């Protein structure tokens, strides 16, 4: 679907593009430096999702809004999407590995650098999700809002994955 973006939409999407680029850089860097193999795997998978988000944002900035399928509103655990978004098979594998992480025994000992990486990425995901919220509300086209909402839900799932990893490894205890 073709779209003509307003100046405000274009500026907000350019911001989202820079956020996605930073997320890719962080996830890739931290995946290379993380000590826990499960954490490395999660970071690598999230880096792939962030690349898909960047590809989608670039499509939109070029005037193309990816068509959404019926499962769009159900989040990254259940839905795939055309136009560069994750597919159902990748998502199912990611969810399965996250459940393995959640079921890992918690000894209370962890690598301090891994914790720093998780802290930084959790804070980053919170911020990026919030900026998507603003961008979504400023978009006039319903298909564009749906596409960005799908990305936002995936960002929230990334945050939940990090939170669950941290909690299951004794890195984070919400009070």
Outline the structure in words.
- The structure is a single chain.
- The longest helix is centred in the N-terminal third of the chain and has 27 residues, at 7-33.
- Helix content is 69%, strand content 0%.
- It has a single domain (1-66, 110-175), classed as Up-down Bundle (Ferritin), CATH 1.20.1260.10.
- By secondary structure, it is mostly helical.
- Helix 1 (7-33) runs antiparallel to helix 2, helix 1 (7-33) packs antiparallel against helix 4 (112-138) and helix 4 (112-138) runs antiparallel to helix 5 (142-168).
- The chain has helices spanning 7-33, 37-61, 88-102, 112-138, 142-168.
- InterPro entries: Spore_coat_CotF-like.
- This is Spore coat protein.
- Pfam families: Coat_F.
In short:
With 175 residues, the protein is mostly helical.
Q: Determine the CATH topology.
A: Ferritin
Mean pLDDT: 83
Rg: 16 Å
In CATH, the architecture is Up-down Bundle
Stretches where pLDDT is under 50 for at least 5 consecutive residues are 70-94, 96-107
What's the number of helices? 5
Distance between the termini: 46 Å
> Helicity level, as a percent range?
55-70%
Supply the CATH superfamily name: Ferritin, core subunit, four-helix bundle
- Overall body shape: elongated
Number of strands: 0
Global structural class: mainly alpha
Largest sheet: none
Biased composition (Polar residues): 98-110
InterPro entries: Spore_coat_CotF-like
Biased composition (Low complexity): 84-97
Protein name: Spore coat protein
């Amino acid at each position: 679907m073709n779209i003509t973006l307003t100046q405000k939409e274009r500026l907000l999407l350019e911001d989202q593009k820079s956020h996605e680029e930073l997320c890719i850089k962080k996830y890739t860097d931290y995946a290379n430096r993380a000590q826990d193999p499960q954490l490395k795997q999660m970071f690598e998978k999230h880096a792939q999702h962030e690349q898909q988000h960047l590809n989608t944002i670039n499509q939109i900035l070029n005037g193309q809004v990816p068509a959404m399928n019926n499962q769009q509103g159900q989040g990254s655990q259940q839905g795939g999407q055309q136009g560069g978004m994750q597919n159902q098979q990748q998502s199912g594998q990611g969810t399965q590995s996250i459940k393995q992480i959640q079921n890992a025994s918690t000894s209370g000992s962890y690598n301090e650098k891994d914790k720093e990486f998780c802290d930084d990425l959790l804070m980053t995901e919170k911020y990026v999700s919030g900026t998507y919220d603003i961008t979504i509300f400023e978009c006039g086209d319903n298909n564009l809002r749906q596409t960005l909402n799908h990305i936002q839900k995936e960002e929230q799932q990334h945050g939940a994955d990090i939170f669950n990893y941290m909690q299951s490894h004794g890195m984070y205890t919400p009070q």
